[in-house]
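Internal ticket - ligand job 227, S-adenosylmethionine:
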Amino acid sequence: MRADVFTLFPQWFEWFRSQRHVQNALALGHTVDAFDFRTATPLKWGQVDDTPFGGGAGMVLRVDTMEAALRERYGEDPVALKSHRRVIALTPAGRLLDDALASELAAEEEITLLCGRYEGFDERILEHFVSDQVSIGRYVLAGGELAAMVVLDTMLRKLPGVLGDDESAVEESFSEALEGAPEYPHYTRPAEWRGWAVPDVLLSGHHARVDEWRRAQSRLRAERPLP
Ligand SMILES: C[S@@+](CC[C@H](N)C(=O)[O-])C[C@H]1O[C@@H](n2cnc3c(N)ncnc32)[C@H](O)[C@@H]1O
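stdout (structure tokens):
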């Protein structure tokens, strides 16, 4: 997986890249590179945004400076780029990120993530340069950087070898293995604390019964969401 992120804050991704599972991904040959929109702008003072036509608060990321940034990186017209590469804008109203979308994106060899700021993107960026719009929830963040990290995090941990134990990512909340249901409860030592006992079945050593119990708990959580 080669992931490129376009942002006004590329330094934020140094922290992301330093996380253990991301380090594992990088060691396996995957890449996560952050590019500053401003480096390619032809405008004075590194400008990449402007006031909205029609008035109103805030600034809007410009289509011409976005084109310059994408052309500099990929050496082609961004309109053509999106036909062979997933170019994803992070937007509050986009397709909601879920486990299925994370798996879909993890299967891509290359992706590009565009992080908005201020009032967001000039609509022509979304119409002409972007293959997908992805939201991490129906609320508004100050910028797309945290959203991009959420998308990258959930994708990267699905790649073989990135987690210490690949099995950890197989049977998880919302996974196919659990038929989309939340994960079952986990317990560890001590087996009893303040009178709160671990369910007997988990101490039985009977793998088939443990498995059956876990699946039943998972189904129960799907029917009765946690408070
Ligand atoms: C302050 S927001 C812009 C909100 C925009 N004016 C609106 O009302 O939809 C700035 C940027 O943060 C990012 N962003 C904010 N909330 C997000 C979310 N829930 N999911 C994905 N990206 C988000 C987007 O890239 C957006 O362009």
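Auto-summary: The pocket of S-adenosylmethionine is lined by residues 90-93, 115-117, 119-121, 135-137, 139-144, 147 (CB under 6 Å). DSSP finds nine helices and nine strands in the chain.
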